[in-house]
Design brief:
This protein is of the alpha/beta class. The protein has 9 helices and 8 strands. It has 2 domains: about 140 residues, 3-Layer(aba) Sandwich (Rossmann fold), CATH 3.40.50.12500; about 100 residues, 3-Layer(aba) Sandwich (Rossmann fold). It is about 45% helix and about 15% strand. The longest helix has 18 residues.
């Protein structure tokens, strides 16, 4: 089984760290290929960043369509470009936020999200609403830790995230924590041990759900809005990314 792990930001070291977390939970025989866009923000911490990140996801799945993976994981908690990726790729495409919400809701009657910048909490709230988890998600808590700072997450930063999680559990009455950033993936096991509750990393959750969906022989529906994109010209710097260019290059 081949899983494409797509980091929507352009920081190579973060792509490598996320890939390591994904491979650590992947089943024997699962190949995880990690990639990132050729353009866009080095981290995603605003609506503006996310708009370019979604375009970067579209670029990478258009390229992937020429040699499609069995499943794809979009490794950013905003799930940027998720619908576009599902239009293009037949295999299951999972965003780490959606995957984490599903898994956490199976482990506790309520969960809290602990994320990076407080300004992105509203973005997570909108995902909760979109995916229908308003009754399960009892709170979203920012730590104001920049995304790229997680690459040097030592004990002081770990304690900061731990304290935010403890506050969330107490304030929200939650039974589980969802980590709201792919860069937090390496901290998951330690936090779970310290907190004594399930701590869900969306990268791991998405990889295991992707394996399950592929194992069940399930693929993305082609009925309605997930039908393949309409072939049409693109202009400017995006000219080579048009869906008709993919078809001409030998894709589906």
């Amino acid at each position: 089984m081949k899983i494409l792990l797509l980091n929507p930001n352009t920081t190579a070291s973060m792509t490598q760290a996320i890939a390591a977390a994904a491979r650590a939970v992947a089943a024997p025989g699962t190949e995880v290929r990690a990639t990132q866009p050729s353009f866009g923000p080095v981290s995603i911490e605003s609506h503006y960043d996310e708009a370019f990140a979604a375009a970067g996801v579209a670029e990478q799945v258009r390229l992937a369509a020429e040699d499609p993976p069995d499943a794809t994981v979009i490794a950013c908690f905003g799930d940027p470009g998720l619908d576009a990726a599902r239009e293009v790729l037949d295999g299951p495409v999972l965003g780490i936020a959606e995957a984490a919400f599903h898994v956490a809701s199976m482990l506790a009657t309520g969960f809290s999200v602990v994320t990076t910048m407080t300004r992105t909490c509203v973005m997570a709230e909108r995902l909760v609403q979109r995916y229908g988890f308003e009754r399960s998600c009892r709170g979203i808590h920012g730590t104001d830790i920049p995304v790229l700072a997680l690459e040097q997450a030592g004990e002081p930063m770990l304690r900061q995230i731990e304290e935010a999680a403890r506050t969330a559990l107490a304030r929200d009455g939650s039974g589980a924590i969802v980590l709201g950033c792919a860069g937090m993936a390496p901290l998951c096991a330690t936090l779970s041990d310290r907190l004594g509750v399930p701590v869900v990393d969306g990268v791991a959750a998405a990889v295991k759900l992707a394996e399950a969906l592929v194992g069940l022989g399930l693929r993305t529906s082609r009925r309605g809005d997930y039908a393949q994109p309409l072939a049409k010209p693109f202009t400017g710097w995006a000219q080579g990314l048009a869906w008709e260019a993919t078809r001409a290059a030998g894709g589906r």
